[in-house]
Amino acid sequence: MASKTDTQVATVYVRFKEGVLDPEGVTIQKSLAMMGYDKAKSVKTGKFFEIELSDGSTEAYRQLQEMSEKVLANPVIESFEIHWPSDSAVGK
Amino acid sequence: MASKTDTQVATVYVRFKEGVLDPEGVTIQKSLAMMGYDKAKSVKTGKFFEIELSDGSTEAYRQLQEMSEKVLANPVIESFEIHWPSDSAVGK
User: Fold this and answer.
1) What ipTM is given for this predicted complex?
2) Which of A39, A47, A71 is closest, CB to CB, to B63?
């Protein structure tokens, strides 16, 4: 079982904010349609970062939140969502 | 409640296979360390695609599986994971 002193992996999901153009997604959808995949009506792209944290301390969590805001996502056009290790445990 | 004739959104997660170099992740980790975020020991990058399917038919699912294999992921270096709408319902 994971404890606060164990290495933990958190995932940060970054996507475009509502209303921001996603040209890569549009291009992929058009390509898919041309290839005959007519069931795909729209495609939105996003990225994620799996970050190995040295421990599960409050400080590690604080750093993860701050690096997501300042480095991983561009707050002007992107939003982010952090899945803490504890969330994954709940999901499984 | 979603039925088979409703539009559904599936998500395809694409990540590098084990052993494939992820230079973007390495660079981000180094930058984070230089910025003082010492808790982030490693960073792996990945991408995801939120695909709106016109319906939840077997054919739509077949197309999603095939486009993931042939278009969204590069099978030489990447693996993918599809989260069907039904999975999300289970997760919530």
Assistant:
1) 0.86
2) A39
